[in-house]
Amino acid sequence: MENLDNFFKCAFTVDNVIFGFDEGDLKVLLIKRGEAPYEDMWALPGYFVYQTEDLDSAANRVLAELTGLRNVYLEQVKAFGRSDRHPVGRVITIAYYSLIKISDYKINAASIARKASWHSIPTVPELAFDHNDILTACFKRLKRRVRGRPIGFELLPPKFTLTELQHLYESILETELDKRNFRKKILSMNLLVDLEETQEGVAHRPARLYQFDRDKYEHLFAKGFNFEL
Question: What are the chain's domains?
């Protein structure tokens, strides 16, 4: 039987994929690393897990230390354990993701992060380690989630137009949605409240404003309602 000591030569890290929506654009939060390996390269906000720390606590701590973000709901996605993914030694990382409204948070780079900033998803550069693969996996999870849960509404203002809602989903799903079919399906769910108000101060014809009825959704969800876009 192999020596058990050989199984305790592995480190663990957590990497956070924080998606943010801002003015019709889906972005991801990246840091510029201030230490080797991959110094000066962009990367996901991630670092090592302490020996006495559980994974969820580590994910929240690392995110706060590197970017200043706190009280962000993080969902565990999967582990990445390719044996050569870290040049120093065997490191297994656990990926987490979240979707937030950029305007609600202030970024403050610290610790090994020389800089922290939002990057539009289509223009993300080559990242350190296998972080492009991690980003891709979390983006796929996000796409599946927004089709089955109305989490996208949290990224919009309290009052929004159907066009703004459609642009949000088009940005996340990376596809153009048929305007007529999208509106028909969304309105048929009866989860929007028509505020009987229109936009103000716009150059084009003012559009009607709506609000997401969260209480109604929670009530329907408890009865087995399936939100499917």
Answer: 4-148 (3.90.79.10), 151-222 (1.10.10.10)
